[in-house]
Write a structure and sequence with these properties.
Layout: H1 42-55, H2 92-96, H3 121-126, H4 131-146, H5 166-172, E1 180-181, E2 204-207, E3 210-216, H6 223-231, E4 240-244, E5 250-254, E6 257-262, E7 275-277, E8 283-294, E9 300-309, E10 316-317, H7 319-344, H8 357-363, E11 387-391, E12 406-410, H9 411-417
Parallel strand pairs: 1-2, 8-10
Antiparallel strand pairs: 2-3, 3-4, 4-5, 5-6, 7-8, 8-9, 11-12
């Protein structure tokens, strides 16, 4: 962790940070104190309270602070010319990202206050100054999406979170025999059977006793449906019919788009109404079942199937996808921590690799590279003997965040090493 900060006469070295001045006496506080701390000591805090009581006695009428008038800035309309990738934010990034990242001083989109240069990069990407303005911008944008003012389908990069690449489509597109995908036993590691990107004509999907079969619209003699879809979509679009065996309900779809539904016994087709009741009064819903998984190469993809169910289920993650997501979360957290420390040294947008701490610990065989003793993998912070990442070349000396510059270390060993350069070498006694 390299906590200690050092100063040097070298022109390339980073100067020591200074904290905020006390609001009463003006004494400069330590840089590590939180930004919310306004006073350096208890006497100053008491003096501030005394001053406040004198200015506003207890019997004085309460005056409500007027709400600041928010001046909306540039509306969150995507910029198709933007080509810079926004990592870690596959949904809001393409929608809210501005054409350029704010460098400091630009007006906030929500409150029009200037954006600080040390604001996290995700906020500067969206030209907002704080977490509060970021959440406000997301709420306003979600409202605009619901109203139809923003078309997600026209935004480059949207809808590709689980989209398979060409290699995956070629792999799963290989000819196979129709299959039956059932609900697994309650003690299984995952509740449903599936394979590929979605069901093919002839497949059967059973979910908790509800059975849906699939066929092409042309094979069912629904040429008018084929013409309807192709006249409003691609010329070679092939609509698929999902048939619910319990009720005989039909749904025609291409990909994620439902085109037409109907229920036997009703005078008119339901159009795109996806919920209905059968003759016994039981409620059924057509749902696009989405299961996120990874292939043999670790690439993510989505299984999608329009199924008729009594109880809709949320998007499900397989154990392999959950492990991948957790690995990405750990590596992103470590990278963001490094970049935050570099911002403290005055380096904005420091480059950092996505390195999973567990990969480093396993590479070093769960042995501390400073005291050369074993690390207990079950120990967690703030246990002094828990595992941490140590930068061989310290962050204070612009050490990079890469697998080559990282090593496993006990937390206490890392603290004692401080800003030393190298793997250490002194023996540190302890458990």
């Amino acid at each position: 962790m390299d906590h200690a900060l050092t100063t040097t006469d070298d022109s390339d070295a980073i100067s020591e940070r200074t904290g905020r001045p006390c609001a009463i006496c003006g004494t400069v506080m330590e840089s590590w104190r939180p930004r919310s701390q306004k006073y350096c000591s208890d006497p100053c805090r008491e003096a501030a309270a005394k001053k406040q009581r004198a200015e506003r006695p207890k019997d004085a009428p309460k005056i409500r602070r007027p709400k600041p008038t928010l001046t909306p800035g540039t509306p969150p309309v995507p910029d198709p010319a933007r080509t810079r990738e926004v990592p870690g934010d596959p949904y809001w990034g393409p929608i809210l990202a501005a054409a350029d990242r704010a460098t400091g001083g630009e007006p906030c989109r929500v409150c029009a206050e200037p954006i600080a240069a040390k604001t996290p990069w995700s906020y500067r990407d969206r030209h907002v100054c704080s977490h509060r303005c970021n959440e406000t911008l997301k709420r306003r944008t979600a409202t605009r999406i619901r109203r139809g003012e923003i078309d997600l389908g026209s935004i480059p990069g949207m809808g590709t979170r689980g989209a398979a690449d060409e290699e995956q489509r070629a792999h799963f597109g290989q000819e196979r025999q129709p299959a039956v995908f059932r609900t697994r036993d309650a003690d299984a590691d995952f509740p449903y059977e599936f394979y590929g990107l979605g069901p093919l004509p002839g497949d059967v999907v059973e979910r908790h006793g509800s059975v849906t079969t699939y066929a092409t619209a042309a094979s069912m003699g629904a040429d008018w449906l084929v013409d309807l879809v192709r006249s409003n979509s691609e010329d070679d679009a092939e609509p698929i019919l999902a048939i619910h065996e319990q009720t005989g309900a039909l749904l025609a779809y291409t990909g994620r788009t439902p085109w037409w539904t109907s229920v036997p016994g009703q005078e008119q087709p339901l159009g795109q109404q996806q919920s209905f009741r059968d003759d016994d009064g039981r409620q059924w819903t057509w749902q696009n079942e989405i299961i996120r998984d990874v292939d043999e190469n670790g690439k993510a993809y989505d299984w999608e199937a329009w199924v008729c169910v009594a109880e809709p289920a949320p998007t499900l993650w397989t154990p392999a996808y959950s492990a991948r997501s957790e690995k990405q979360r750990r590596s992103t957290r470590a990278r963001n921590s490094y970049q935050a420390r570099m911002r403290g040294y005055g380096v904005l947008d420091a480059a950092a690799a996505q390195v999973d701490p567990l990969d480093i610990y396993e590479r070093d065989q769960w042995a501390c590279q400073l005291c050369h003793k074993a690390i207990d993998s079950a120990a967690e912070w703030p246990d002094p003997w828990s595992a941490t990442l140590d930068h061989i070349k310290p962050v204070s000396l612009a050490g990079e965040h890469s697998a080559e510059n990282l090593q496993a270390a006990h937390w206490i060993c890392n603290v004692r090493k401080g800003d030393a350069w190298g793997p250490g070498g002194r023996e540190i006694s302890g458990g």
